[in-house]
Amino acid sequence: MADEIALGREAQRQLRGKTPHIGGSIEAYVTRVGQQLANQAGGPRYPYSFSVADTREINALALPGGPVWINRGTLEAASNESEMAGVLAHEIAHIARRHAAAQISKEIVANGLLGLLGAVLGNAGGASTAQAGAQALAGGYLMTFTREDEREADRAALDIMRRAGWDPRGLLAFMTTLRQRSGRDPSAVEVFFSTHPSPADRIVTLRALLTHSKITGRRDSPAFHRMHEKLSRPAGSRF
């Protein structure tokens, strides 16, 4: 667990340094929702954090050990708070189920970074190796999850949303929105498709999981729409 956290922190430091991001009240709001979801994730008690990338592409990213990124384009594409919560819950589930850790182990071997985890834990002479591994993570090179990982993350996300008090249908609704956007604006979802299974496949699975479920939970909030209003302001506006 300590190695995942250390590697994730270094990757997070590098991402924050090179990625335009939105702070202020928008990041604070996303963090509040994210932390409520993370509190219900189970698994290791990772130090979860939430960042908003200032890019119009629709995507989200989980780093090992706790950091979650969500793009501005994803926030803008969401119609209500439960849709946004569904995206965050899916990324949290990847971390809680240690998918990132399993993927790192495979990639360390495949890419000759055998000293990486020991280096992150502080072994002598390992700083440059750790930075190289974190740089690969920050570039997204190590975070292509398997289809089974993605299915498990969707199943776990629904449970996380229920326990945290959100309507789990929000994740299904967001996948439906993505499928519609792929026809109207393919470039907006191109990156998402490169790192996630197609929304059509996920919609089928999510519908099956939700068919016999008792649906309860919050769908929306005024805070979500205040965030949307702020995102619609002209470039250069303060958040």
Mean pLDDT: 80
Give the beta-strand count: 4
Strand content: 5-15%
Structurally, the number of domains stands at: 1
- Extract low-pLDDT stretches: 108-130
Q: Which secondary-structure class do the elements indicate? A: alpha+beta
Q: What is the succession of H and E elements? A: HEHEEEHHHHHHHHHH
Largest sheet: 4 strands, mixed
* Tertiary shape: globular
**Number of continuous helical runs:** 12
Q: What is the helical fraction, as a range of percent?
A: 55-70%
Rg (C-alpha, Å):
17 Å
Briefly, what is this?
By secondary structure, the protein is of the alpha+beta class. The chain contains 12 helices and 4 strands, in the order αβαβββαααααααααα. 62% of the residues lie in helices and 6% in strands.
Give a structural overview.
This protein has 239 residues and is of the alpha+beta class. The protein has one domain (2-231). The chain contains twelve helices and four strands. The protein has helices spanning 2-18, 24-38, 72-77, 81-96, 99-110, 116-120, 127-138, 147-164, 169-184, 186-195, 199-210, 222-231; strands at 21-22, 49-53, 60-62, 67-71. The protein has a four-stranded mixed beta sheet, sandwiched between helices. Strand 3 (60-62) and strand 4 form a beta hairpin. Helix 4 packs across helix 9 (169-184) and helix 9 (169-184) crosses helix 10. The radius of gyration is 17 Å and the shape is globular. The two termini are 34 Å apart. Mean pLDDT is 80; it is low at 108-130.
